[in-house]
Write a structure and sequence with these properties.
By secondary structure, the protein is mainly α. It has one domain. The chain has five helices and no strands.
Length: 66
């Protein structure tokens, strides 16, 4: 049987955790989700041209994490 936390979206769970920082079960569910879908790793920019694409990459990464 799934817990209430497993039925929450990642954002809902994050919001809950910010308000209930001592809830170990909710924290474990959130941690499992974070570890299951790691973020994309981008190489360090080496030139000025590399930096020109950085805002788009950063925004894509933020959208993917929600």
């Amino acid at each position: 049987m799934k817990s209430t936390f497993e039925n929450m979206s990642r954002q809902e769970l994050r919001t809950y955790l910010l308000e209930h920082r001592d809830n170990e079960e909710a924290f474990q569910v959130y941690l499992d989700r974070v570890m299951a879908k790691p973020g994309e790793i981008y190489p360090a920019p080496k030139t000025i041209e590399d930096l020109s694409n950085f805002p788009q990459l950063l925004e894509k990464n933020r959208r993917d994490r929600q």
